[in-house]
Amino acid sequence: MNYILQYMVFAIAGYFLGSILFARLWGNVLKKGDITKDTPDGNPGTFNAFAKGGFWCGTLTVLCDVSKGLVPVFLCLHLVDVNYHNEILMGIVMLSPIIGHMLPIFYKFKGGKGIAVTFGTLAGYLLDFRPVLLLAITFIVFSVILVIKPDYYKTMVTFVLAALVSPFVGYRLAVVITYVGAAIIVCIKLLLSSEEKKEFSLSVFKWKIIGGKEAPS
To answer: How far are the Cα atoms of 72, 92, 170, 172, 207 from residue 87, in angstroms, in the given order?
Structure first.
């Protein structure tokens, strides 16, 4: 099989796998109903799966969302002939589950924010944890140290900063493409979303720098 076709097969498979919104699926299987109902952002993701569906719904959702990013990337890396490795095509494969999650064909292109699946996609490089560590560290910094609220802004800042930093930390081109592509898609999706835009808040630990007296939840 032509190596370009091999990459395209994994990219298409990744998109369709990404289009399975496991938060909705497990919510129905476990008879928890629509886990996006009566939530501030209506996001079919891990946070609402835990908040509305409980421990098992949330746990199964995060495991499946991470896996749907990890599996196509891992298989592509190991099944496509290394003599024909192409960083740009690999970047497309890595982006495909993220795009599928955010714009799922099975749900009229109304998906989630893509955080867990992005972690999974980056974790597909199982022998190189630097890509996923960059995203994890950035999230931790803006969640614990330089605390940004609400999550609407934290998500955008995290993805954009990680994308800006990724070319300077020795990552391969496919990883940089994934970071930049994911950041662009996340920002466009959030800016066009109907989610209520609460006041931006920035704190250093518990000391408020920007925002009102009470940080938005």
So the answer is: 15, 9, 14, 8, 43
Single-letter residue type at 210: I
Cβ atoms within 10 Å of 146's Cβ, excluding its own: 14
Whole-number pLDDT of residue 152: 85
> Region 100-104: what's the mean pLDDT?
94
CA 106 to CA 101: how far, in whole Å? Answer: 10
Give whole-number Cα distances, 35 to 4, 48, 57, 74, 144, in Å.
39, 6, 9, 30, 26
- How far is the C-alpha of 52 from the C-alpha of 54, rounded, in Å? 6
Position 194 confidence tier, pLDDT thresholds 50, 70, 90? confident
Q: How confident is the model at residue 14 (pLDDT cuts 50, 70, 90)?
A: very high
**Selection from 192, 216, 27, 24 nearest residue 104 by Cα:** 24
Asked whether 200 and 127 are in contact (CB, 8 A), the reply is no
Q: Max alpha carbon distance in the chain (Å)?
A: 61
